[in-house]
Amino acid sequence: MTELPEKLLKLPIWNGPVTGEPLKGGLSNEAYVASDGENKYVVRFCSDIPVHHVMRDHEAMVSKAVFQAGLAPELMLYQPGVMVFRYIESTTLTAADIKPDMSRLVQLIKRFHTDVARKVRGPARIFWVFHVLRDYADTLRAGNSRFADKLSQYLKIADQLEAVQVPLPIIFSHNDLLPANFIDDGKRLLIIDFEYAGFSTPMFDLAGLASNAGFDPSQDEELLAMYFGRKPDADLIRSHAAMKCASLLREAMWSMVSEIHLDAPGIDYAEYSDETMQLFEKELATFQAKYGKLKS
After folding, report:
1. What is the CATH number of domain 6-88?
2. From 3.90.1200.10, 1.10.3720.10, 1.10.540.10, 3.40.50.10780, which CATH number describes the 92-291 domain?
3. DSSP assignment, residue 288?
4. 36-64: per-residue pLDDT in tens?
């Protein structure tokens, strides 16, 4: 039997003896699945992470809004440092699940983009990946990152990827569409983890979904057609291709910052930085092969 931490056992939500086990897979939080014999919950111990623009009050507000929209498990308890969600028996999606389930995922994402905005209350953030990249670069310089000598190059690339973005409507986006943030309870798809959610355009979510699932150009165009309800034009396709690069650069720089500032058990951030940077470089090469090499 797993020995649970005292901070979990002391939560005011329990109605009986508590059993549980660690929930693995997260990159920045300590989490457990726990039960008191009557109900089962996911317990996440998490603090604000200013270097990643993560504020838990905001995440809790969004979690309530997404549940009210019918798209996520219910947040049962929020206190500083801990969130407790109702457990839903479900399967976590993998990258291999994304392509065959693209139609259902697009419908879920469109509902998220439209319905959640009507439910959020109080101060709400704006997420723009190119601002995030610039801020990460300053954080990495200040922390003497091992990537410090490459930051100017990354920012020049980011500026050029930003320059080809097309104007799109403002929606409320998730901004971290890793496959593991989708769960399937056998009847419906749900979405979880709202650390980075905020008002943006739909392109970052579409690019994040595609880059995390390894879409090829034909699958990218299929995704865009499904979401926008029309055949994408050349500018939209280029914008999406550029945003896929930006999405992967953000993931890589997120990990670079985490190397300096986070210490999650069992997570090798340096290895993850190297892996995600390789994915970014591959995607950038694909972009450059079609649209020409970005100016240095």
Report:
1. 3.30.200.20
2. 3.90.1200.10
3. H
4. 999 999 999 999 999 999 999 999 999 99
